[in-house]
Design goal:
By secondary structure, the chain is mostly helical. It has one domain. Helices cover 39% and strands 9% of the residues. The chain has a three-stranded antiparallel β-sheet with strand order 1-2-3. A hairpin with a 5-residue loop joins strand 2 and strand 3. The protein starts with 9 loop residues before the first helix and ends in a 15-residue tail after the last helix.
């Protein structure tokens, strides 16, 4: 399984999928049995972290990489099958250990080779320390944390209102109704 234009990287040469005895496995199959077999091999691979990091940082949204299938990779990257950024209401998890989004943080990292962009967005898992550079993943993680903060703020406001007690709320409701003048005749429901 050559990844980088015919030249094996250090981690690729150590991968289990590059061994002759595993060449019959199809890492780009859509057959559930073959996908499962490929993922199982990945989970015993010594360079699984390097592989999934490569896939996430280079937009490899098809096939099995580092024990993650195409759907899992697209979810982690928050992209659709065309590679376009999407929000599905489901947020990314750690590509390595599968930790929930609440365990992910974002940061800006200097890009050592410069070029057009001098910094890049990265996501880091606080559970396992795995880090990958991905603008779409970072955007989704930030959206998750923003949504949680808004939800917590609403919950706190609701709790503060509930702490005031029913007597305060009923008094404020009563004062909001216009009072009927004492000398005004009562309205009859029958006319």
């Amino acid at each position: 399984m050559s990844i980088s234009n015919g030249e094996a990287t250090n981690w690729e040469a150590e991968s289990l999928c590059s061994k002759p005895e595993n060449k019959e496995l199809d890492f780009f199959s859509t057959d559930p049995g073959e996908v499962s077999a490929a993922k199982n091999l990945c989970f015993s691979c010594p360079v699984r972290g390097d592989c999934i990091e490569f896939a996430l940082e280079n937009g490899k949204i098809w096939g099995v990489w580092g024990g993650r299938d195409a759907n899992e990779i697209r979810r982690i990257l928050s992209v659709n099958a065309n590679g376009e950024e999407v929000r599905r209401g489901r947020f990314p998890q750690c590509g390595y250990c599968g930790a929930r989004t609440s365990r992910l943080t974002t940061k800006t990292v200097d890009k050592p080779d410069g070029g057009r962009w001098t910094t890049v967005k990265a996501v880091e898992c606080t559970e396992c320390g795995f880090e990958w550079k991905s603008r779409t993943s970072a955007n989704a993680v930030n959206a998750y944390h923003t949504a949680r903060a808004v939800k917590a703020e609403r919950r706190d406001k609701k709790r503060a209102l509930n702490k005031k007690g029913p007597s305060t709320r009923s008094a404020s409701k009563a004062s909001a109704k216009p009072a009927r003048p004492v000398d005004a005749p009562e309205e009859s429901s029958q006319k």
